Amino acid sequence: MLVQLKNSLAHWLNSANDFLDQYVLPWPVRFLTFRFVILITIGLLIPLILFAGNTVLVLMVNSYLNTMSVAVSSIVLLYATISEARQKQIADLQEKRAQEDHSHVTEMHQLILESLQNQRQEIEDLKKLVATLSGQSYESETLAPVQDLKELHPRGSQRFAEGEPHQRFDEQLPHNVLVTTVRDSLRSARKRSAGRKNTNL
Predict the structure, then answer these.
(1) How confident is the model at residue 152 (pLDDT cuts 50, 70, 90)?
(2) How many CA atoms lie within 13 A of 101 on its CB side?
(3) What pLDDT shows up at residue 28?
């Protein structure tokens, strides 16, 4: 019951965030990044100096500037968080693609080595057959085993394990509790969203 309530709340929050990101938040971003708005906001420092004795005007301008400052800080923080999550997604996709390509090339070379090994074995069998038909004795050469190319990697076959890049990044990169918490929450939200889409399909 508690898990179902938590999932329902998370679904509602994700839906609300999607609605705000699509229909509401773009407007204050456009307003605050408009060139004339920036110039006018900077120009409000002039009446603060010239009419310092007018308490009502000073309070109004200060309230506007404080509101704009909080709005800009919140928007910058929001987009920085989204950008960090997006960069993490891009890095994950690039690493996954590189690992798939590396595995594919390694498997191709491995198949070539195994094919060459089979050809050597067939040649040895033919030599033995010819020697038998000729009434001669032939001692087959011992063929070296095929080298496992994955073991030649500096990290060994572990480099090709699932999730190895994430584990290596977590071990080598410095940790930040806030960034990790936000990233994990965004990753969980994406997994739940993907699960809902697969269920709908």
Answers:
(1) low
(2) 6
(3) 84
Residue whose C-alpha is closest to residue 157's, from 88, 106, 93, 112 = 106
Cα(106)–Cα(160) distance, integer angstroms: 10
Q: Does the pTM exceed 0.70?
A: no
- Give CA 167 to chain center in angstroms: 13
Query: Who contacts 81 (Cβ-Cβ below 8 Å, separation ≥6)?
Result: 182, 186
Ordered DSSP codes for 104-136: HHHHHHHHHHHHHHHHHHHHHHHHHHHHHHTT-
Q: How far apart are CA 31 and CA 8, in angstroms?
A: 34
Cα 151 to Cα 109: distance, rounded to the nearest angstrom: 13
Which of 170, 197, 190 has its CA nearest to residue 89?
190
Domain boundaries, the chain: 2-136+147-200
Question: Residue 171, SS3?
Answer: helix
- DSSP secondary structure letter of residue 161: S
Cα–Cα distance list, 7 to 14, 71, 104, 189, 197 (Å): 10, 30, 39, 10, 15
Q: Is the dihedral of CA 25, 31, 33, 38 positive or negative?
A: negative
Segment 159-174 shows an average pLDDT of: 60
- pLDDT value of residue 172: 57
- Dmax (CA) of the chain: 121
